[in-house]
Each structure stands twice: as structure tokens, then as C-alpha cells.
Amino acid sequence: MCVDAVLRWLEDWAAGVNWFAFLTIPLFTGIVGWLINASGLWMLFKPVTFVGVRVPGLREVAGLLPRKAQEIPGWMDGGLGWQGIVPARAAKMGSIAVDKVIAKLGTPAEFYAQLEPDRIAEHIVTVFRPDLPALVDEVMLREHPRLWRDLPRGLRQAVVDRVQAQLPGVVKTITDEIGVHIDQLLDPKIMVIDHFRANPDLVVRVFKDVGQRELNLMVSFGFVFGFLLGIPVAFVDQTWHVWWLLPLLGVVVGWVTNLLGMWLIFDPPEEKRILGIKVQGLFLRRQSECAEVYARIIAEDVITLERIGDFLMDGPRGDRTRQMIATAMRPAIDRAAGPLRPAVNVAVGRRRYDSIKTSFAAEAVGRTIVPFKDVEFSRQQADRIRILLAQRTKELPPRDFVEMMRSAIKEDEWMLYAHGAVMGAAGGFLHLGVFSWGWVPWFS
After folding, report:
1. pLDDT surpassing 60 at residue 441
2. HSE (CB half, 13 Å, CA atoms) of 429?
3. Both ends of the chain: CA-CA distance in Å?
4. N or C: which end of the chain has fewer CB within 10 A?
């Protein structure tokens, strides 16, 4: 009796079904799901810089909106437009990269040790030595031109030779001092944040180079998820025949499609077994391979000898670095003067002699650090940093590893879900227009 009732209900239901519309709903939701994830990927990365218009008063109004709304790129600056979520959060990505990953991969002292300070010292001596005679001549002509001109050529050359002889020891002292105080001189967090903020395209490169395979899969699975979710939607639509159900369910399909796409990539971080099947975020399954890519990018573009040199000399603690180098350079003059030091003191006076030492040290500071900024030498040293980063990244717990990529955008994922919901609703209205409202004549 019950079976007969069910069969009669199915016959009545089937008689009222628009089968063409029914069969096209999953196809529609599949295509919309693909478009949602493809356009969501575009929203993540493009454009690298803000594109839009400034709207008077928007900045003040945005300040009154809920915090989530304030996170929409451009609004808090009074701009109506769009900037990719990832480049818009470049500074945040840098902060998280340090807190969650780089800080766990090594201390500033460990990174500096990998750069081989002894090789740095040798390179500084090699680069600095040819300029030393001109530097000594320049300082002496400025500080005490008469004395320097009156000295016989042989004595002047002797001074230069003695200074050059002191150079390797002085430079070794400088590189050792930098190593001892590197934790106070170098702040990786500031260095990385500033670099990411100034180069948002680098953050995009990190995401794409490390996770491009998973991102492509997310787009492909957008069709699969959309198609599968469209099957129950087709049954509901053709059962109740209420026009607003399709757009409303389209919102759900669009939201869930993006949600499933993100889950597919990042969750669960730890490997689990469900009915004997391995379940783990796709991105986590390639941790070893992704670690190599991530380490290469960071070693070549972020934590480099060149950038460390820039930060040491021109960063917020640059004055301390310069003072430390100058302090190490001053004894070179005393040692260069050797037995003649008392006579020189009498000839030029103690104050002028100290001024010569100070002036020489100040002039030498910039030239001493120049080899840090040697692009080719920095590139040669990058491989050691890459090896260290790759090794430590591979050893990270999966949960920490996934935070490297996801944490910077996690708070902004709602924009992707909202975008999916809007497109899902639009797909529902489009299907209604084509198959129910006769927007296209041959379907009416």
C-alpha cells in the first residue's frame, strides 16, 4: 500500500516536471561553480595594485561600517574598486610569514651564519682594497693637506701599505661584531613586512608558485561541486515550482562551492583516515615539494645578503651599525702609524689626529658594507639560505605549514564566499529567464 502511494506520487511528480529544465539545472550550477572558482582565483591575485575611483565621503562612511566590510580593499582609503586580496594583504602576509614560519625556521644569527661571514669578510677586502689608497689620500688631504703633501712619497705609501695590511683583520672584526650583535641589528619581521609591502607582486608569486597546482584543482572542482549540488536543487525546483527557490538555492550552491574549494586545498591539515581512505588537504600532501619552492623564493628575494646589507645600513637600526663599523675602523689608523704615532701626534696635535681617525672611519663605513649589496655575490650565498629554509620548512608541523599560506587570507575568505553566493543567485535568475520566463524565444 505504501509502495503504491509512493509510485503514484512519483508518477504525478514526473508528469509535472519540465525535464529539459530539470536536466539543465546541474549543468548550469556546474558551469556557475567553475566560473565562481575561476573568478574567485582572479579576485585573490588581481589586480596587484588598486584599480578604481575615489569617492568623496566613502572613507568616512566606511569607518562606520562593520569590521568585515572595512576589510574590502580600497574602502578605508575612500576608493571604490578592487585590489587582489593577496596583494592587498601583502604586509599582513609578511607579518604572518615571520611569526608563523620564518621565526621558527631560524634566528637572525642562524641566517647570518649560513651566509658565511668569513667569505663575506674576504669579499669585502677584495672589493675594498683597490679603493683604499684613494680613500687615505682623500681623508689626509681634507684633514691635514699640508702635512700629507710634505711627507715624502715613500712615507705616504708606507702609511697606505700599513693601512692595507690592517684591512683583513679590521674587516674580520667588523663581520664578527655584526654576527655577535645581529639579533639587535637585524629585525627580520620589519625587513620582510617592508619588502612585501613594497612588492605585492612577490606575495602573489609566493602563492602561485607554491600552490598553483592546488589552485588549478580548486577551479576544476568548482564544476564538480556545482554539478553535484545542482542535482538536489533540480529536484527541489521541479517539486515546488516556486520561482524564487532557484535563485535562493543558487546562493547556497555558490557559497558552498567556494567553501568546498578552500576545504579541498587546506583541510584537514593533519592526515586522517575515514573508512580506510586517506583524507588531507591537497596542499599539505605536497609539503616537501612546496617547501623547496617557498625556500627558493624567500632565499632569492626576501632574506638575501643584499637585503640584509640594506637593512643593516639604511634600516631603523642603521645608525648603530655605522657606529659599530666606525669604532672597529679607528684602531687601523693607530696601527698604521705604528712607531711614528707619537711624532704624528706632536706634528698634527691630538685633536687633529683623532679627527683623522674619525674621518677615515666614517668614509670607510659605506665602502665596507658595499659588498653586502653585491647582487652576484648575494646570489651565490642564497643557496645556503635556501637549503636551511627548505630543511626547516619540511620539518614544520602540517598545521604550521598550512598557516604559511592560508592565514593571510583566512579573515578575507568571506569575500570569496559572498562573491560565490552572488554569482549563484545570478545563475539561478539566468536559468529562470531562459527556461521559465522565455527570455530566449526558442526555450519559451
Report:
1. no
2. 7
3. 39
4. N
